[in-house]
Amino acid sequence: METKQLTPGKFAVNYGLILGIIMIVITAITYFSGIMEKGEQWPNFILYIIFPVIIIYAINRYKKHNGGLLTLIEAIKVGVAVAVISALISTVFNALLFYVIDPELTDKIMDITREKLYENPKMTEEMIDKTMETIKKFSNPLLGGAIGIGLSALFGLIYSVIGGLVMKKEA
User: Fold this and answer.
1) pLDDT at residue 29 greater than cutoff 70
2) Which of 54, 79, 84, 140 is the residue whose CA sits 20 to 30 A from 155?
3) CB atoms within 10 A of CB 63
4) Rounded Cα gap, residues 42 and 4, in angstroms
5) Which UniProt keywords apply (predicted)?
């Protein structure tokens, strides 16, 4: 009887879903607890730790399911797929959050950002205005989502290359 080999992309779906759900949970907690409206950034640091851990773990699990063999290309496929799938899931949730759940959230965050900029004595009114103009250009949740997907793919690639180089074992 022939066993069906699991492709890196299909294998990555479950881990991409898990990471995407974790990202949604963290975003939901920060939103519903009011942390997001305060402009707190520390929840992002949790993601900066979880993101590479899950990617490396997914690559490791793929290697185990593949009889202990792993090429660098397979590691990259698994890691980038996990990163992109999770970013797509997170982008859909963020679009719901910013367009359906709380359409004024972008304006609230912009107001908080402006207040935080005023707290910096080195920032002039002109600097604050220019900074706010730039932020406003990129404050569209869908544009932010597209940028997020691109950055996820990039960091997924970086972590995959590192993990793949450490764990690779070819036949």
Assistant:
1) yes
2) 140
3) 21
4) 43
5) Membrane, Transmembrane, Transmembrane helix
